[in-house]
Each structure stands twice: as structure tokens, then as C-alpha cells.
Amino acid sequence: MNLKMGNRQKWLDDSRRWSELMSLAHRGDRAAYTRLLTELGEVIKKYLLVRYGSAAWLEDMVQECLLAIHRGRHTYDARRPFRPWMFAIVRNRSIDFLRSEKPSLYQQTAADPDAETGLELDQIVPLDLARSISRLNPDHREALTLTKYIGLTIEEAATWSGISPSAMKTRVARAVHALRKRLEREAIVYE
Amino acid sequence: MNNRRTQLIQQLSTELLPVNPAGNLSHPTGFWLLSAATFCSVAMLLIAPFRSGWLLQLQQSPMFLLEVLLGVAAIGSIASLAFISGIPGHPLREKMQWFAGALAAAWIVVQAVGIVHPALPLSPAGGRPHCNFEVILYSLPPLLLGILLLGKLLPLDSWRSGALLGLAAGLLPAWLMQLACAYEPVHGLLHHLAPVLVTAVAGALLLDWQQRRRRN
């Protein structure tokens, strides 16, 4: 199955551009920083939509992530890839936000792998595929999101998730297999 | 785009100041290791001299030399891992976890093997009456310095990062005790290494407290 959930060249171009913008921001370039945060805000929003679904507090979470990126911007080194750095912060901050601001929701999200998510994914991927992805277990959903949608390499996704590259490769393969099975059951053809 | 988000971005951009990116982690790691080792050595020497003949023992016993070198390597790698954990998404984090874990395990195993096959003849000579308290006491200033340095980065999991730093801070005086205190493997495991659990917990608590203060 070929999951065309994003344009890899665009992801690479985005990463390079963000890295350059952050380097300029390190030197105090405000225009570059504004542009960077504006673009990152949109990417983070889309990622959080995939992960947590549409919710009234999602924008608060986006802003918390931008604040965390702002506070930690000095830890980014242009010699390292941008996406793993950014998504490590986003993931950590979003989990912290849920724990402290929405503890009941955190418990629910952690406990219920079949919770409906990604209601606005039709803006990003075809609706049927989005719905099927949202019904995968959290690990599979995350593996697919990181590698197929956000565009991290297996190694980057593995570092981000705190597992080995071989484990991430297995996880992605299993996620694709599970997704294929689900789509077959739902008699949806996607190529 | 959301209005509130636009306002936040404008505010953050207006407040933007130049920063020095935390590029080469070998600088803070090396500085911390050198400072901590110097402090611990001097502090120990001020209380009591090192065990008589320890230098000769290093030269004459390859097994003892191995124990000591493994200790150096383990402490260095754990300290590196602690500082690496202050950089989100650092590409070396996982490899360093395995490396540090393997070295630390090897060091402990070699010392445990020493219970049955000691590297040196067992002797109470050079014994320090309160070596376990000394390990904890001497670890505190390096731990505080480490919290200060690591806190300037962005440790996303402050419990884990703090525990690693506490581990490194405690293992340094514990390692020095191999040279300073009586050579007896069971004594070393119980009175030099075991107290390091306390310093690890202290490191986790302190860094977490520091990060919470900064966030609020």
C-alpha cells in the first residue's frame, strides 16, 4: 500500500527552511522568527489534530507548544535535524498540557485506544483513510503520523519516540498492515 | 490563523533576543566532570589521605586498573547522557543510553566478581569510617553545579535528567573511594555505590523543582 499522506521533498525543504530561520532568530532576526513561528504554528496544529482530534482547547495547546519552542530555542543547533527537535518539544509539552489542564481527558486519551480522533483530517488526508487511521492503536497511529504524514525518517521517528530504529520500522510495518486490514474490512480502496 | 496565536507570535518576536545556541555539549559536560572530580578529590584529601599505595596497586593489578578505568568510562558516559537529555530530540540519545548502561553494568559486574575473585588482597587499611556519608556529601556541590548547567538547556523529562545527573554526581566520589578507602568489594558495593541511589533521587527532585519554578 502506498500511503501518499504528504510530499517528502516538501518536508525536507520545510525542515531546511525552518533550520535557517531558527539560525537567523538566534542572531535576533525578528522577521525570520515571526515567519518561523507562524509556519510552525500551523504544522503543530495539524499534528495535534491528528493526535487528539478537534477540541476547544487545541489552540491553547498549540500556543503552549510555541511558548516551549520559544523558551528552548537556544537548544537547537543547525547541525542537527530540525523536526526531531521540534516534535520532541511538541510531544512533551502537549502531554504536560493534558496532564495539568485536562487530567480527565489525559486519562481517557491514554486509556482508550479506540477514541475517535482526527475529525478534521479530511483537510489533510482523505476522510475514509483518516477515520481508519484514527482507529488504530496509539503506537501505530503515532508511527504512521510521524513517518508518513510529518515526514520523519525511521531513525528520526525512533529517536522521537524513544525506541530503536528497528522497533520503529517494525511498528510502521505493523501499522500499515493493520490499516490495510481495516480498510479491507471497511471495503475502502485507497492507492 | 487564530488571532490569539498571531498576538502571541508578535509578542514573542518583539521580545526576541539573540541567544548562543547550545552547540557542543562536550563543553558543559567536560567542565562539569573536571570541576566535580577536582572538588571531590580535594575534599577527600582534606578529610583524610587516600589509601596508601593505591598508585602502585593500579600499576601492579590489571584487574584493579580495569575496575578503575571502567568506572571513569561509566561516569563520563552517564554525565554525557545527562547533558544530552537536555537537548530535545538529540540524535545520539538512544545510542548513548545503551553505551552508558553497558559501561555502568560492566563496572558493577566487575566489582561484584571481585567478591569472589578480588583484584587486590582484601585489607581494612585506609578505611574511612564514614565513607558512605562522604559519598553523599561530596556529591552535593557537583550536583548543584550540574543542575545549574543542565537547567540552562531544556530537559523535557526533568525526573530522568535529574536522576542521571545525580547518578553521575554520586558515582564520582564513589569511584574515588575505590582509591581512597579500604579495598573490599562488598564494602564498596554497600557503602560506596549504594548511597548513589540517594544522590540520583536528590538529582531528580532538585531538577524537577527547578524546572517547575521556571515554568511558573
Describe, in plain words, how this protein is organized in 3D.
The complex is a heterodimer of chains A (191) and B (216). Chain A is an all-alpha fold and 191 residues long. Chain A is built from nine helices and no strands. Chain A has helices at 8-26, 30-52, 58-71, 82-101, 103-111, 127-134, 138-150, 154-161, 165-185. Chain B is an all-alpha fold. Chain B is built from nine helices and no strands.
Helix content of chain A: over 70%
SS class of chain B: mainly alpha
Order of helices and strands of chain B: HHHHHHHHH
Cα-atom Rg of chain B, whole angstroms?
20 Å
- Beta-strand fraction estimate of chain B: under 5%
Strand content of chain A: under 5%
Oligomer: heterodimer
Biggest pleated sheet of chain A = none
End-to-end Cα distance of chain B, whole Å, is: 27 Å
Number of beta-strand segments of chain A: 0
Number of strands of chain B: 0
Rounded average pLDDT of chain A: 79
Write the layout of secondary structure elements.
The complex is a heterodimer of chains A (191) and B (216).
Chain A: H1 8-26, H2 30-52, H3 58-71, H4 82-101, H5 103-111, H6 127-134, H7 138-150, H8 154-161, H9 165-185
Chain B: H1 3-14, H2 26-47, H3 54-60, H4 62-84, H5 93-116, H6 131-151, H7 158-180, H8 185-193, H9 196-215
